[in-house]
Amino acid sequence: MATSRGSSYPPTTSLERPSRTFAARSTAPCGPPGSGSSPSTSAASSPVPSRSRSSPPVPDRPWEPPASLRGIAELDHDRAHRRGYAEAIYCEAKTPAQVRAIAAAVREHGTPTLFTRAAPDHADAVLAELPDARYDAEARLLAWPPTAPEPTGGLVVVAAAGTSDLPVAREALLVATYLGRECELVIDVGVAGLHRVLGRLDLLRRARVVVVVAGMDGALPSVVAGLISAPVVAVPTSVGYGAAFEGLAPLLTMLTSCAPGVAVVNIDNGYGAGHLAAQIAAPV
Predict the structure, then answer these.
(1) Among candidates 97, 71, 76, 100, which has minimal Cα distance to 88?
(2) 258 FRET partner, CA 20 to 30 A, in 51, 65, 186, 235?
(3) pTM for the full model?
(4) Which domain holds residue 121?
(5) pLDDT tens-digit readout, 223-275
(6) Closest by Cα among 146, 113, 111 to 131
(7) Would residue 177 count as lying in a domain?
(8) 98-119 burial code (b ≥16 CB/10 A, e <16)
């Protein structure tokens, strides 16, 4: 369930740098909008592509961490200027006090930020400093500012093999959404019932990229990659009985996929999958 509190800090800067605009190209929507988002189109008549974009102002002097942050972290506020997407904060193994100090620095600087692998005590720490942040408990992710940017680029479809894979699938979905992509979630289309994934082929074939999240035998990415022309980002999860070895079995299955065009991220790495998918589906 997603929550947000208050609206003390409502910056509108996206986690993604402003999208590139090409005057010569018209991009048709990749599919119907998902969950309140709308497809994005761009069109103009000039034959010369324009790469001009507005960017957040670059600070006059290098940012220096406040005393409360020294010895904890050195935040990379310039990352969006340097590589196009803002830094994310990995909360697992950090104390709530450390996460709160980081959230305070994020608020002071105004940098849009995702907090991943956030347990409830991490979420409380972030919300104490950023009360309007959105918290999705299932995905263990907080987003600040809470409103995702208007989607641009191509459609990202996230397919979860089973309901048990949903936490990782939702993490991928939200990351791609907050990086500015239109996203659709498909649930419970594992290979034990192939008719289920075949029934979603129209949607899968409209996607610019499909993220496939699966545990146990990890066979679903190969099946999907054999049915569509778009690249597949495969995410092994730690779901499964003993011989699945907490995600090692599906990881090896995905790495040895017979179908070409499958990229594999680490076990349970929904953040990495969503980020890669957002980059693949970025406006061109």
Answers:
(1) 76
(2) 186
(3) 0.77
(4) 2-15+54-144
(5) 999 999 999 999 999 999 999 999 999 999 999 999 999 999 999 999 999 99
(6) 146
(7) yes
(8) bbbbbbbbbbeeebbbbbbbbe
The burial of 181, by beta-carbon neighbours within 10 Å (0-12 exposed, 13-18 middle, 19 or more buried), is given as buried
For 205, other C-beta atoms within 10 Å of its C-beta total 15
Partners of 144 in the β-ladder: 113
State whether 205 and 133 are in the same domain.
no
Question: In terms of domains, do 184 and 268 share one?
Answer: yes
Distance (Å, rounded) from C-alpha 209 to C-alpha 235?
Answer: 13
Determine, yes or no, domain membership for 20: no
Is 23 inside any structural domain?
A: no
Residues 110 and 160 in one domain: no
Question: 113 and 161: one domain?
Answer: no
- Locate 176 and state its tokens: 């791609």
